[in-house]
Amino acid sequence: MKAAIIGGGVIGGGWAARFLLNGWDVDVFDPDPEAARKLDAVLENARRSLPMLYEQGLPDEGRLRLVPTVAEAVTGADYVQESVPERLVLKHKVLAAVEAAAPDVPIGSSTSGFKPSELRTGMVNPGRLMVAHPFNPVYLLPLVELVWVGGDPGVAKAVQDMLTLVGMRPLVVRAEIDAHLADRFLEAVWREALWLIKDDIATTEEIDEAIRLGFGLRWAQMGLFETYRVAGGEGGMTHFVEQFGPALAWPWTKLMDVPELTPELAKKIGDQSDAQSGSLSIRELEGLRDRNLVAILRALKGEGSGAGQVLAAHDATLARPMAQALPLITVQRVIPSDWTDYNGHMNESRYGQVFSDAADAVMVHVGAGPDYIANGLSYFTVETSIKYLVETHAGEAVRVGTKVLIGEGKKLKLAHEMQRALDGVVLATCEQFLIHVSLESRSSCLPSASVQTAVEALAAAHK
Amino acid sequence: MKAAIIGGGVIGGGWAARFLLNGWDVDVFDPDPEAARKLDAVLENARRSLPMLYEQGLPDEGRLRLVPTVAEAVTGADYVQESVPERLVLKHKVLAAVEAAAPDVPIGSSTSGFKPSELRTGMVNPGRLMVAHPFNPVYLLPLVELVWVGGDPGVAKAVQDMLTLVGMRPLVVRAEIDAHLADRFLEAVWREALWLIKDDIATTEEIDEAIRLGFGLRWAQMGLFETYRVAGGEGGMTHFVEQFGPALAWPWTKLMDVPELTPELAKKIGDQSDAQSGSLSIRELEGLRDRNLVAILRALKGEGSGAGQVLAAHDATLARPMAQALPLITVQRVIPSDWTDYNGHMNESRYGQVFSDAADAVMVHVGAGPDYIANGLSYFTVETSIKYLVETHAGEAVRVGTKVLIGEGKKLKLAHEMQRALDGVVLATCEQFLIHVSLESRSSCLPSASVQTAVEALAAAHK
To answer: Taking 80 as the threshold, does the pLDDT of residue A226 lie above it?
Structure first.
């Protein structure tokens, strides 16, 4: 598959990274003489962070080219994503160039403000143009607002599928309105924030604290309505809204004026923001943001909730059946940044997690995976011994080779070896002794006949 | 210390839980005949979730009483928190009753809308009344907006200190305005959301997805301004705001009308919310919310960012020097919900984490803690053997007893035993072999003389 990215800034670069790291070939067109440097900066962040979200390796990277014309970028593309600056004239010009070279390819626009009908003016084949509005950083955040109303449903479905395959969650916005959905909320918050700063009620830092220590933590997982559904309790949401409504009405009747964004106000915001975060460079802040996002997304993935659910579903699509090799390759993954400790290397307990995942892979391979467990049978680990040989760091790709040392009756003994994927250096070894149990009685029992046969075959092959 | 909680609903109950679980005695006054049941429900959630945030045990719970009068609740209290319904007449009545029984105690009001000056009308000693506006669930979210303008700075300082000690982050709001800070934003978002639903642009579920899969993930960690500072790049925040301003101005000029909250609109919201989450009871949603918050807060704690920084600072205040006992009690903690796996019990790798933490505690005890590591020396674990004896579940309190088996030269060998705190049942044992290293050369070397002496003394005592 090939994606054409028109406009290679922070947003376009983020799109390029998401497609590339999911195995697509990517051609980028951007006339900015600094385009290569800017694209590299985004890709460096993405290559570090995106693979950390998954419990297995992403596909091999596609081929990336920065090309000199729109025509070259879109020729042979399966999908075109437009992310040029928010000027309608410019967007129309770019879309005409895309149409001239690739008359049938689906086109998504990253516009945060324009409606599809505005973008489609003058197009020969307007039905394949839709808004596909992502959120920064595009390589980590799953949301993409898809506004295709008035367009071709078949093309929209194809785009939904493609975006889902690169780990995004296309949210179909059923009507075209200015700023789609999410940015309406962002703008509402901006309006309030501008007033608070203009009137010296609060600084940028105080506003950020008010958000991230309170409702921001709720919004990362449940959004607005589910949060209040819970807060409202047993009376139900209708009752809650009726109760809550009058209180809502008081302040909002006073907050309808729009502050004028004068140069003075812009400078005041800039100065306050410098005082808040000026000690950190933008690169350092990006690094902090991405480490936090990796940690939050992985936390939600563990609970199967919100963006974590999207991530878990994508992770599942990446799973490949394990080859019948010697040793079995049971784990292939990147070490995430939330697995390191104050020594700057992977915490010893996370070696245990890698080997625990390796044992899980063996379980799936012999037919004792989630379905088997749902039927009340499983293997429990009784004893683990780990030798730590070489330090392991965040961002490193590793693989685990596993041999079955013993596989008879209730007993299963595994030997794992974790290697650095880059050079095959052995990082740690592990012996793990497991017993087959009934999840109902919580005591040991024989596995099913088919699992027993599979385990015995592996033990014989690995002897 | 004793807190008096006036009003024991979702918010008051959350306050009661936070004080109680941080070792305060708590007297609650609430005339609702259902008060005991409602309070129990909040406490049950809090007892399960709050201890999971920490790497060590919280203080012993204080004593909780539901008392029949305001006077009884506030007598002898160090702090009074008022959380009665948002009616000014009722608040004034309650404050008068508080003053009659406790003339000098600091009083915080949970009001989300009223200004301190409105609440103080008619008070004898108004200077000790301030707004202390928390966020639901109060026992997990650290933010509390403190509006004491016009009040007594000494009292405000004392309240700030008390709230910090129970793990909160008091954000001083420097001017009194309707709805303080955070609720201004929440109300702005509510306004937009009501329009979107009224006009059939989006459902409650679509709005929640638009928030939690995109900017909600950013707001949990950086808030509004730091997020855009990063997005704006090297040009700086002033430049970004100047660029961004015109785009902001387009839609906001159209979104200034306020939708009327008719019964029809309330019902529409209720019906959509039922369709979205009706399959889950409020208790189930609360459980989901709290598990997600535990996971997100712990993720941010690992990065030392936002609410995670508040949490880490509070965790540090809970640390107590380890007693010179046999065995050393190296870990006392509750198993968090994000440590369990599909079998419903603690993942095997987390046993490794508990024992890794136990080794860290020994390091601190012998003088090889963070300062020692910052000076370039540390112990690295070379080998770990764990025997898993009994299943461990989320919410269970555990303790680890540790003996030093070998402590000579570069070598340190530890034997750990993890017990269930409730009944002393041994859950797992571990032997751990560590080597002292130079962090510069990454190779083994002798510890400092004082660390070596301490390690040898432990080995001799544990022989």
So the answer is: yes
With 70 as the cut, is the pLDDT of residue A444 above it? yes
Claim to verify: residue A168 and residue A22 sit in the same structural domain: yes
DSSP state of B250: H
> Is the pLDDT at A251 greater than 60, yes or no?
no
List C-alpha distances in Å: A94 to A16, A47, B405: 18, 29, 72
Nearest to B302 among A212, A236, A295 (CB): A295
The answer to whether the CB atoms of A388 and B380 lie below 8 A apart is yes
Å from A289 to nearest chain B CA?
Answer: 8
pLDDT at B110: 97
Residue A262: CB atoms within 10 A of its CB come to 12
Cα Rg for chain B, rounded, in angstroms?
A: 26
Q: Is residue A108 part of a domain?
A: yes
8 Å CB contact of A184 and B192: yes
More confident residue, B78 or A57: B78
- pLDDT value at position A286? 85
Same-domain status, A381 and A410: yes
> Which token pair is B130?
């301030």
Residues A250 and A140 placed together within one structural domain of the fold: no
Domain count, chain A: 3
- Asked if residue A417 has pLDDT above 60, the reply is yes
Q: Is B164 on the interface with A (CB under 8 A)?
A: no
Q: Write down which residue in B217, B247, B279 finishes a domain.
A: B279
The whole-angstrom distance between residue A232's C-alpha and the CA centroid of its chain comes to 31
B290 near A CB under 8 A: no
Mark whether A154 and A193 lie in a shared domain: no
A261 close to B (CB below 8 A): yes
In B258-389, DSSP assigns E strands to 328-334, 377-388
CB-based contact (8 Å) between A297 and chain B?
A: yes
ipTM over 0.85: yes
B27: closest CA among B59, B61, B72? B72
CB-based contacts of A424: which residues, under 8 Å, 6+ apart? none
Q: Are residues B61 and B164 in the same domain?
A: yes
CATH number at residue B209: 1.10.1040.10
Domain membership flag for residue B362: yes
pLDDT, chain B, mean: 91
Q: How far apart are CA B150 and CA A143, in angstroms?
A: 45
Chain B residue closest in CA terms to A443: B390
Tens of pLDDT, residue by residue over B100-112, are 999 999 999 999 9
> Is some CB atom of chain B closer than 8 A to the CB atom of A349?
yes
Residues A123 and A66 in one domain: yes
Residue A364 is part of a domain; what is its CATH number? 3.10.129.10
Q: Are A225 and B193 inside 8 Å of each other by CB?
A: yes
CA A292 – CA A365 distance, rounded (Å)? 34
Verify whether the Cβ–Cβ distance A282 to B386 is below 8 Å: no
Tell if the CB–CB gap between B202 and A174 is shorter than 8 Å: yes
Amino acid B73: pLDDT: 98
pLDDT at A130: 98
Verify whether the Cβ–Cβ distance A179 to B351 is below 8 Å.
no
Domain that holds residue B97: 2-172
DSSP A400: E
The band of B341, judged by pLDDT with boundaries at 50, 70 and 90, is confident
User: From residue A180, how far is each of A54, A149, A294 by CA, in Å?
Assistant: 30, 12, 27
Q: The domain spanning residue B35 has which CATH number?
A: 3.40.50.720
pLDDT for residue B233 is more than 80: no
Asked if residue A213 and residue A82 are part of one domain, the reply reads no
Amino acid at the residue A354: V
Measured in angstroms, the CA of B101 and the nearest CA of chain A are apart by 31
Q: Is A301 within a domain?
A: no
> Which of these three, A279, A306, A339, is where a domain ends?
A279
Q: Are residues B147 and B268 in the same domain?
A: no
Full-model pTM: 0.89
Q: Is residue B310 part of a domain?
A: no
